[in-house]
Amino acid sequence: MATTATGALAQTSAPADIAQPAAEPEQGEAAAIIVTGSRIRRDPVDIPSPVTALDSADLARTGLSSIGDILQRLPGSAGGLNSRFNRSGNNGNPPDGGGVGAGSAEIDLRYLGSRRTLVLVDGLRFINGASASGIPGAVDLNAIPEGSIERVEVLRDGASTTYGSDAIAGVVNIITKTRQKGFLASAQVGAYDEGDGVTQNYNISWGAQDEEHGVSLVVGGNYTKQGSVFASDRPYYSFPVPGATACTATCSGTTPNGRFRIINPNGGGTLDLTLRNAPISGVPVFDPTDPYNSPDFKRFETADRFNYRPVNYLLTPNERIGAFVNFKGEVSDAFYVAAKLIYNRRTSVNQAAYVPVSIGPDAGNGNGSLLDRISIDVTNPYNPFGYTLTAGGDGVAPNYNAISRRFVEAGPRRFSQEVNTMYANLTLGGEFKLGQGTWYWDINGVYSVNSAKQVMTGNINAARLAQALGPVSECTGECVPFNIFGGLGTITPEMLAYVSFVQRDRSSQELGDISANLSGSLFDLPGGPLGVAIGYEYRHQFGSFDPDPVVAAGLSSDIPALPSRGSFNVHEVYGELNAPLLRDTPFFNLLEASFAARYSDYSTSGSKATMKAGLSWKPVEDLRLRGTWAQGFRAPSIGELYGALSRFDGAASGIVDPCSDLNAVTNQTTRTVCLAQGVPANGSYIASGTGFGLLTGGNRDLKPETSVSWVLGGVYSAGWARNSGFAQALSLEVDYYTIKVDDAIGVPDPNVLVDSCYNRGDALACSAFSRTASGAIAQVRGTLQNLSTIRSEGIDVTFNYRSPPVWGGSFGLSVSNNFLLNYSIEVPTTTGTLTTHYEGTETGSPQAYPRYKGTAVLDFSSNSFNASLTGRYISNVTEPAANAYNVMDSILYLDAQIGFSPSFLNDAFTVTLGVNNLLGTRAPDCLSCGSFDPTTYDMPDQFGYARVAVKF
């Protein structure tokens, strides 16, 4: 059988070859078709597709409180957003228009990005997330109440013909509780061994069934609260370089005491100054004849840099409240009505260091920001230079490059989100006889809305700052002249009250979906009935993002953003065939072929047809060989189409400007390009730090991505082992996959841009860069486009064993593996293409691409006692973004759990104790991440938890 239990997540007590769904699909129920990734009904224990099934016991075994965190542990998963991300204010807005996604959890299969993994709930689409910083193109798994989840099925194959857009890498289908008798309740509390990161998780549900009248009802709710961990709580991560005890060049050049890069009034050239003995009472003294030995100024050095890490989160806090209702009523033997309601509220917090404000032509805020054009008037009472510091313009040359100040007095930048999600589904379905077979039909309606609000504190209004730094005669009324020169503590509450503001952003999405499906069999073939399914789907999606009016006016000192909104609708039809060609003949225990096609017509990106074909052959009962070829596509998301211009800092945060200190540059290509871009030949330009911003935005001319994928493999389920008493189950599954995505939507990787331009002299890459008169990077353009070809190739291997009965129970061993053979991105250049391979590397975006990930579970299970030991292994990766090609060593995590269910209580009461990361293994250092890669690795501590569950 192809449905396999996988690693620490899959229930080894019900291995692949004997596993049954948690609840048998009822006649006419739509959920029955979801297990296979096909709309054609078939035996749930004889599924030809590669499906990983996780039931409620598998989910509980992890000790985790987020379904997103659980799915990200799958060996074939690349991670995605989770609670270890603290990106607000640190990395700008991602290029896809989806926003930072603070507090969200997403799933990314095959390293192709969460936008190329389709998430369903009971086989139907779920609304994409809301982040209050953009319009996301992927589902936020934290919007689905954990208490509603019965099981999860992950299809490791392309499925655009079955489900439409987005199902390029695979499909995650979350199946909710539809049948239950009585109450189920659980309470779990856990914490890290330092006593922080306390997590509480409470679930309760009640169900009733009237078998006589065919009525079932399940209602429930859950409450989850996750505590936080600051970088300062873990000394090892208290500096940007893990393990450091003092600042290096990776600390920030924007400091509380200020950094003043001005043109030397005597002889030209750039002075790089900071205060000598801060804070300064009154006006600092500057000596233009000996600037670096002025009474109150000195040369800026590495020791003067600011450590921004301590106030950042390693683990972000969040709180979730969810409720759900599932109802099904059989009006007759051939007709039923089903309804589902879901509500979820999530509150979460991200926090970044005190806002860094940089003004002047080399400040790098980009996109015409007012901050890049501020002048400090000679009449400002705190100006120590005796003349106006002008940013230039209108034929006047600037006399300063940039002045930077970290506004510690304003407190950390704190981003607080509240996201509300409502989801409603109504299904009418039934069956009827036609010829010799039974046909099944269903009509489904989905309506869902969400809204997100984000409040940011610690931001600065650039217009008010410009006024407070300008001519004192124009600083009237509420305006208070601003002191940017005095150092830490010299920004008074009155100054701060005038220039600061509370930022309030909003976003929302809306989903309407109507689908109709009909399936049955036409006639008999030698191997069985010819199965057929046809259907129609109409979907409408709308999304909007409205930043604070101050931000929209371009007056924020933090990440720039503009309002965006858009919508699309799509009409789709599909058809599917399953043909059992032979059965129960020599060498052909079963031979079946499948074919599917889908036609989609989008209001935004036109029409597209996709096809899929497969062949499954069982030469003997115990062995199935299978292969599929599939076309896929992904229509551009609302954020990708309509997202407004913003700035993304994340992918380029550790890059050194190749043109810095040109006198020391020996690569002739680099020198030629730098000089052509206007960098001074005398070497006067020296970059103030690392990294640069990427100016990104949506593109209404984007066309859909297309893909072609192959999956070839087989499953061996040893019947002889069951018959001989050696095992209750013994199986091995091996699948090879390769996926090619053409016209992939994205922006150039900044590392590739820099290499292509400055090392290869590629004119197309160089056209993305623009520089100021001093030579500094002003901005790098990276508007979304159908840019690249992505290839992902690998092998999945899964082994399952379940022993015969012993000591009132049985032992099990499950081993799941993913071998990443190739992950590459091909981008165009002036002379052709450039292919970059990522397998075995860490990009620091962050995303690691280990060549091997494996999970093994050894467990014992009986009616009253269970125990498990889980090992999770990740192979080493190298980090090319770091100067010395940092090697991030391989790592092994161990998780342990035991549970007791006293028989004298009729198994109605269970106590579970567990420890994740039993050995307290610390993740390998990711230099470009500033700590560890949160997509791939755990927090570096033991996490212990206790859970009590009751049923009555």
Give the helix/strand layout.
Elements: E1 3-4, E2 51-55, H1 56-61, H2 67-71, E3 77-79, E4 108-109, E5 117-121, E6 124-125, E7 149-155, H3 160-163, E8 170-176, E9 182-192, E10 199-210, E11 215-226, E12 229-230, E13 259-263, E14 270-275, E15 297-299, E16 313-315, E17 318-332, E18 335-354, E19 356-359, E20 400-406, E21 412-434, E22 437-460, H4 462-469, H5 493-499, E23 500-525, E24 528-546, H6 549-552, E25 564-585, E26 588-602, E27 606-620, E28 623-634, H7 638-642, E29 646-648, H8 668-676, E30 694-696, E31 705-717, H9 719-724, E32 729-746, H10 750-759, H11 763-766, E33 769-771, E34 777-781, E35 785-802, E36 809-829, E37 832-837, E38 852-862, E39 865-874, E40 877-879, E41 886-888, E42 891-900, E43 909-916, E44 943-951
Parallel strand pairs: 1-2, 5-8, 30-34
Antiparallel strand pairs: 2-7, 3-4, 5-6, 7-8, 9-10, 9-44, 10-11, 11-17, 12-16, 13-14, 13-20, 14-15, 17-18, 18-21, 19-20, 21-22, 22-23, 23-24, 24-25, 25-26, 26-27, 27-28, 28-31, 29-30, 31-32, 32-35, 33-34, 35-36, 36-37, 36-38, 38-39, 39-42, 40-41, 42-43, 43-44
Task: Please tell me about this protein's structure.
With 952 residues, the protein is mainly β. The chain is 7% helix and 45% strand. It contains 11 helices and 44 strands. The strands form 7 sheets. It has a 22-stranded antiparallel barrel. It has a 6-stranded mixed β-sheet with strand order 1-2-7-8-5-6. A 5-stranded antiparallel β-sheet has the order 15-14-13-20-19, with no helix packed on it. It is elongated and about 100 Å long. The two termini are 35 Å apart. Residues 1-32 have low confidence and may be disordered.
